[in-house]
Design goal:
Blueprint: H1 7-13, E1 32-48, H2 60-66, E2 70-78, E3 81-87, E4 95-96, E5 99-100, H3 101-118, E6 122-128, E7 132-139, H4 142-154, H5 163-173, E8 179-184, H6 190-202, E9 206-213, H7 215-219, E10 226-228, E11 237-239, H8 241-265, E12 269-274, H9 279-290
Parallel strand pairs: 3-6, 3-8, 8-9, 9-12
Antiparallel strand pairs: 1-2, 4-5, 6-7, 10-11
Helix pairs in contact: 1-9, 3-4, 5-6, 6-8
């Protein structure tokens, strides 16, 4: 078992099905809604009979009531394409205690890949540093899952972020609609991210963002002057919290407000998560929120 996969977390989450919000275009029968009609047990609608329709799908009760022929349509079920985009820029090396953003991202992506593979879905992985460092297209097989997990085990975080260009490229490369999950600390101006997520929306992808942050990045509750090192290669900065903390917190709150507006406008499923949380709890909440609501 890989270091970022915990059997007890897998055992806990396997009871929670992994659903997309939007109809998917898969290649085989599965558990996700398709935009096409099929032969599942989930009734969709009636439509008028036209010559050539399968007469076995005629609803004779509707005919008895209306003296007209109607066909019963059902939702088709299919598999999905899960495309994981993991930020591997240098800032993902930042952490608290023994947990880094990169390791947290590996835990999220690895567990989601394992769960999706168990329910017959195709999985792809894209590592976004300064550019797309690794690209593994979605496939369905146990050997492909192993390839994904092996790649996650070996990946390192370094260099500047190229997330904006990577997301645009992903929107073009992932041609069929997919569940696109991005795990990043989003060290990018929200206005630059807006076009990326609108691009993914235009391509009919169901986009999810796990925004990984450490609480000190928000609170800035340092009590003495500190030299801050830029993990993406910039010059270090010596700052006195007693002088800059107020402006920092104000700027951070504005950033988070603008970011949430961008996500809302692009219909992105935005999940802000802290490194102090256990990734198993984060995923349990995510999967429960995505479970279809009973009518």
């Amino acid at each position: 078992m890989h270091s970022f996969i915990e059997p007890r977390v897998i055992a806990r989450l396997k009871a929670l099905p992994f659903h997309a919000r939007l109809p998917m275009l898969g290649s085989v029968s599965g558990m996700h809604r398709s935009p096409h009609r099929g032969s599942s047990l989930e009734f969709a609608e009636y439509r008028k009979y036209v010559p050539g329709d399968d007469t076995r799908r005629l609803d004779w009760r509707a005919y008895g009531r209306s003296d007209r022929y109607y066909i019963k349509e059902f939702e088709a079920d299919t598999n999905l394409r899960l495309c994981l985009i993991m930020d591997t820029s240098g800032s993902m090396n930042y952490g608290a205690g023994d947990q880094s953003k990169l390791n947290f991202a590996k835990q999220l992506c690895g567990t989601l890949a394992y769960l999706a593979a168990q329910q017959g879905d195709a999985i792809g992985l894209y590592c976004a540093g300064e550019k797309f460092d690794k690209q593994i297209s979605p496939k369905r097989s146990s050997s492909h899952l192993k390839t994904i997990l092996d790649e996650l085990e070996s990946v390192e975080a370094k260099g500047e972020t190229g997330l904006v260009a990577a997301l645009h490229e992903a929107a073009e490369r992932i041609r069929q609609r997919a569940l696109v999950i991005i795990v990043s600390d989003l060290f990018v101006e929200p206005r630059e991210l807006s076009d990326c997520f609108q691009h993914l929306r235009f391509r009919n992808h169901d986009a999810v963002v796990f925004h990984v942050m450490e609480q000190k990045e928000i609170d800035f509750d340092f009590d003495r002057p500190i030299r801050f090192r830029d993990l993406e290669g910039g010059a270090p900065v010596l700052a006195d919290p007693s002088i800059v903390a107020g402006d920092y917190r104000k700027a951070m709150q504005q950033y988070l407000t603008d970011l949430q507006a961008v996500m809302r406008d692009a219909a992105v499923d935005y999940q802000r998560v802290g490194l102090e949380k256990h990734y198993g709890d984060v995923l349990a909440k995510f999967l429960l929120e995505r479970a279809p609501k009973r009518k």
